[in-house]
Amino acid sequence: MKSTYKATWGGKRALLRDIEPGMSLFVINEHAPITDSRHPGVDVGPGRTYSEWIVTTKRSPLVGNVLAQSVTHRGYESVESLLGKEREIHTQRPNLPLRGAPESENAFTITAQRNAAIERHILEASKAMSREWATTGSR
Fold it and tell me: d(Cα 128, Cα 126) in Å, to the nearest integer?
């Protein structure tokens, strides 16, 4: 199994051949720098984050494509269209902040602690969803 699948004909075929229900797929999100107009030159946002999707046993009703479920918002998208939109899918967790929780757990502010708790919750939800789809295939 490869660690990165690109949006090519061969990459799509390899991804569809290698995925299994309960498997985690990671997408790298590129963000424009967020600057605060009140404080010129201060960048308050990360440039890159990642999102996680779990491969399910569900298929799209019309075409029959395998669906993946987002860990953060629980929405569904076909694996093929996810690869087409994002142009690259990874099977190993990137060393980037999770989308929606950019600050580290070692920070001392209340906001950073809340964000770290959110990130831990999302990671636990990801593991639970992976187990659920790998074993039962329900929903």
Answer: 5
